[in-house]
Here is the input.
Amino acid sequence: MKWLRELTRRLSMVVHRRQFDADLEEEMRLHLELRKQERIESGVTAEDARAAARRRFGNPTVLREKSHTAWGWEWLEELVQDVNYGAWAMLRSPGITLVALLSLALGIGANTAIFSLMDTVMLKSLPVKDPARLVLFGNGLDQGISDGFPNPWLYSYHFYREMQKKNQVFSDVAAAFSMTDRAHGSVEGRNDAEPMNIQLVSGTYFPMLGVEAMIGRALTDEDDRTKGGHPVAVVSHAWWARSLARDPSVLGKKLTIGSTVFTIVGVAPPEFFGTRVGEAADIWIPLSMQKEIPPGWDGYSDNMFESLHLMARMKPGVSMAEANSNANLLFQQILRGFSGAPLTEENLRKLDKTRVELNSMATGFSRLRWEFSEPLKIMMTVVGLVLLIACANIANLLLARSTARARELAVRQALGARRSRLIRQLLTESLVLAFAGGALGIAFASGASHLLVRMVSDGRDALQLNVPIDMRLLLFTLGVTLATAALFGTIPAFRATRLNLTDSLKDGRSQPSASAKGPLAKTLVISQVALSLVLLVAAGLFVRSLMNLTNVDTGFNKENVIRLRVDASSAGYKEDVRLTGIYRQIEERASSLPGVRAASFSIFTFNEGTWNNGIWVQGYLSGHRETSVHHNAVGTGYFAAMGIPLLAGRTFGPQDTATSQQVAVIGETMARTLFPSGSPIGRHYGRGGPQNAGDIEVIGVVEDVKYNSLEEDPQPGDYLPYTQNVRYLNDFEVRHTGDSAVVVAAIRQAIHDVDRTLPISDVMTLHEQVARSTTNQRLVAQLSTFFGLLAVFLSCIGIYGLMSYVVTRRTNEIGIRMALGAERSQVLWLVMRESLWLVALGIAIGVPVALAGNRLVKSMLFGLQASDPVSLLAGVAVLLVVAGLAGYLPARRASLVDPMVSLRYE
Amino acid sequence: MHRDEIPPGTLYLLILKTLARSGEMHGYEIANSIQRISDDVLQVEEGSLYPALQRMLIKGWVTAKWGTTAGNRRARYYELTAAGRKQLALEMSQFERVIGAITRVIEAV
Here is the structure.
């Protein structure tokens, strides 16, 4: 404990430094005065007495210093001095400091933010027990309901139960509906129905994952026994906080969804969002209740209702390979054993070839990951390069500054400063800059990651992503910048302190180190230019690719259309004539509103999923043949509302009723491929089997439309009147003229005039709907443009800094040249030439690198090659102009040098 | 009069012993005391007392407090602590061992 008391004493000295100094001062003064007194008393003059006292005392300054040193804090005092000095040095050149700080902040911040997002979307483990033992059947990318046979991606409830019963490799198997159900429900005691993301899960879901409720209990297998018999719900922590304001008496609260009253039995722990990254569930309800939740899916006892993602926990000691072989064996057995399985010869052949692929579910699964992993990797590379450029800038800045201070350093060395002390000072100053930049970077990172999530979310319901700042990467980027600062801040220090002192004292201007600084600084600038060209060209590619996408003909007219979601199922409607009745009424009311030209319900518009089925065409080639097409059920005004041009025949009218001849309007591609000879009008096809091939009569042909993405090839598709295909139609489209806000209000009113309880949500324009499908591309285009320009800007700062430095160094020489008769334009060119050389070299290196590097992003491009000459030339042109300007400013300054002044300058 | 420099490393010993003998003292008194008792042979560079005293403060051998001199002036008085006494004993025995050894060497026939 002795050392501790000693440390305490040392620390208290730091705190009471002023007191310490005053005490020591007073003590020494007293000593000197007493001694002087004594001398005077022994009979010498006051003058001699003082001198004698001083002689006997020694050098007070040195002694004071020694007393200080005794306490062991001199390093701290020097550090404080250096930091102060560094801060002042930064403030002396605010422009350069600002640029340096901003580039560091952006470099560190952007890297951290993008990596944090990447980590959350792609790398982070699920917050469940031992996630490494979890496997997913298939890849989890398919979402929806299928009746395909065999289907190794989506499974029926029956299959789940069979797998659970028969497998020997899993400690448990669980299932979750592949889609989040966005239904409306109302909390006990409140009138308004609110939208909620409902996740239907098997009773084994929570136990299999090893997730326990924070309050109450999680769902168990007991909640998943009887169809319709378990009206219980577990709510998410976020929903509990948001919607119930963390009400502690949440257990037992009633929740009305559709016409069923559910009881809340538990609240999930805060970190648990579900198993699909980016799609956080609000409420978990057992699969046994799926029929009770709008839209009333009925897959609990239907063997061919394939809608579930299957997941399982491997038993301890079971390897992935063992699990895989057992799962595949059972897949074959179970499907063959289904009652009512369509075991045709063709299907059996397909089944023989189908294999289930088990994937690790350690990090959850997500469409998001599939969509964004490529863009995120690209952005990570981009910001990494930007950080490099920023570091190069810092390096150049520090090089220039310390070289300019060579003279100061020489003076101090001549006055006896230790070399290590000088190096330490320069190092500290560089680190002050790097740390300040780092601090800004951290602030920027947290803001940027929120912005990023918003940008990524721009395609859907706000993404439920919690993106914490990734400390590892933050420390890494900070480390890189600190290392850069340390390296380039001290290189000149080493160099300067090795100087021949007399040389640099003699003149501060034209010294050997001027040329020594050259190659390093120039290399840095050239690499900056090369890297920025790569980034610029990439940005050009992405922007042009996005432009191509935006100009794609969608087949419908996306301007002046409002679309919104009307959730009739949540309002208690069943799929019957009453439902089509209110659709009809709403369409009529909306159509008669001023400013509305057409209005219609439909299942989908664009990028909302599709409904695919096999159809059988009468007389197609020889006999009947199955082909899959996209269906949509629509109202009579759909083609007018969407602006889809009719090419032949007619669209739907009031004559197409539930009881009249079944009709369809088909797309151009379907007409061309399935009815190759003659007009398709009046021809027939059917759904559900060859025996139905005569059911539906083609009455019209319209232009093809895009279904899921702007990039897709023309797809075969048809439209069926909803009067003959009664189902929930969630989309309502209205073509309007004039102010959309006014029209939206009127439409809401019209809908509520028909039924006040109908929940309306997701109001947006068709234009937005289309734009959302290119979120990905827009994100990449925007970010890469931003960072590309930032890179160019930083490189220009680099050029400007270097050339300014060169000009200052050569002021004297320039003065002489001008005195000898050089023209201003010659001087201008002299300096310009040097910077243009740097840019040209940078471009010469950058072009091949850009051509090679951008091939990696080929898959992200639409409608152009990675070697797109326009992007390349545009990049080169931008760089030449901007960099030329950066070189021109110092050159102009050089040309304005007054020979007299510059010669006197020395 | 010729004055001898004190042997290196003995300054602490001298200060400790002086304080042990006389109780509280300020710097000037310590310097005078050492000089007087040594019959003016041992000459301390008076100022070097102060860094030494600082080090002794850190070690916890002495404590300091402000008081008033006979001449009614403010002065910092140093006083030995228990740790200081222990240190004195240690340094004394070390010193005696060294001196004894030196003596034996130079008196050996």
